[in-house]
Amino acid sequence: MKVSKYNFIKNINGVNVFFNAKTCALAVVDDNFMNALEDIEANNFIEDNYDKKLIEDMKLSGCIIGDNVDEVRQIEFYRNLSKYDKSSLALTLAPTLACNFRCTYCFENHGNKVMNEKTQDEIISFIKNQIKNIKNLSITWYGGEPLIARKIIYSLSEKILALCEENKVIYTSFIITNASLLTDQDILLFKKYKIRGAQVTIDGPKDVHDSRRISCNGKSTFDLLINNVNKLLNNGLDVIVRINVDKENINRIKELIFVLKDRIDKYSKLKIDFGKVSTFTEVCKSIEKSCFDNEEYADLLLPLTDNIINMGFDVNKMNIYPQVKYNYCCADYINSFVIDVDGFIYKCWNHVGVKEKSCGHISEMEKITSNEYLKWIQWNPLKNKKCKECKMLPICMGGCPDLVIDSKNDPVCDIVKYNLDNIIKFYYEKLKGVE
What we know:
Elements: E1 2-3, E2 7-12, E3 15-20, E4 25-29, H1 31-41, H2 52-60, E5 64-65, H3 71-83, E6 88-93, H4 117-131, E7 136-141, H5 150-167, E8 170-176, H6 184-192, E9 195-201, H7 206-212, H8 222-234, E10 238-245, H9 253-263, E11 271-276, H10 294-310, E12 314-315, E13 336-339, E14 344-346, E15 360-361, H11 371-377, H12 385-388, H13 393-396, H14 416-433
Parallel strand pairs: 6-7, 6-13, 7-8, 8-9, 9-10, 10-11, 11-12
Antiparallel strand pairs: 1-5, 2-3, 3-4, 13-14, 14-15
């Protein structure tokens, strides 16, 4: 028996709190636990000297493992199992890149085109070819502003739903929208076509939001979005309000939270998600000085999250509590694709519409093995010595691949590297509060 390389012990006011990055188990531990850990590390462990339940719990948490266990190889095994799993298909579809907003930090090049019938038919043909081999299909509607092409969304949804029902495939769908074009009819059709909810971005109180998420007609959209978030929630749909955070709006976030609590009818059902503004493409390079780096952002995330929890909102716990990441995101899964208005395929959302970043075309999906595709699938932080030896590996997995995949630089450590100690303390305080 030996000790996991992914153990963390933090002493908080004389109390030992344990966390394991491979299982994400968190627990307050006593002297018996610490003594057992010490004995195992010193090769002095005699199992009969300790309570059986304690040892079983230590094994279950991942704290102690068998002598013949190679944790890095295990991680690589489960990473490959996840990466190459074809039982689920995830498609992000952009029926248009047109948008009625001109957000100051947007990374996209917009146009006025909407997806033609030929491309729609090719998407349906691809799903037909896959449907008998999958158990789950998820669609995320994306853009531009996808509701500019609402007819295409509903037409494709009807055909995709029919295929899923015929083949007993579990179907889920979600939309990322600025919500300014949302109508009562859309809400009815969301329900009909199983679009279970929407992500809507609101970047601050009225003056801040309207100065960052600028409508093409110059009109304020803040009050309209508040009303439409209420409509969605009141009709039983899920809503994530995303707040994109940078140095320009950080000091006004708390003010927005108070406004949301005051004006959202079912605010306890509203999930709030914070996003770090980043300069992913040349289109948004002008706002680079306003962006936080991962270390700076890590210092902000916990106080922001604590505030919204204390005010009774839901929170995307994946954004704060560490999760095991055998793969960092959908971009490096074999069966996840982003498809733009012209039918070009991408692995990362950040590249939609940038044709030189395309992996190929939907019409040739079955034979896509381009270098652009393979570099995402073959991206492996375990090939990097720093990552392979890092105690954070299971909860970081090399960070966002898009930041380094076209360079020879080391992976960019994820935010969790910089605030894990604070996260452990944060959740210890929460656990202590419910004792």
